[in-house]
Design brief:
mainly beta
Length: 111
Amino acid sequence: MPGGSAQLSVTEQRMAMRHRVDCAVRAEHLNRGREIELRLRNFSANGVLIDPAPDLQRGDRVILRLPALGRIEAYCIWTFETRAGCQFERVLRPVEFDGVLAAIKPATIPH
C-alpha cells in the first residue's frame, strides 16, 4: 500500500540489545519511490537508528540493503531532529544478526 501508514505485525521491542555502528547503506524509499543513502548509528535484531535521516517521516517504509543479509523492509517508527528509528518487518534470526554486525563492525565511539 504505497503512501499508507505502516501496519506493523511485530510489536515494538525497545529492550533489544543495541550496538553502536557507523555504516552507510543504500535503501529504497517506498513512499517516495526513489533510492536514498542512509547512515546507521545503532543496530539491533529489531531495527536501526538512522542519523541523519532528512527524507524519513514517521510511517515511511524503506527497504534497507544490509551487508551479509541483503534486503529487508523497515518502518519508520519515530523521528526527532536529525534522527529516525526504524523497526524491521521481522526480528532478525541470531545468525542473520551476527552476520550483519560482523560485516558493519561496531563503531568505536569515545565516551
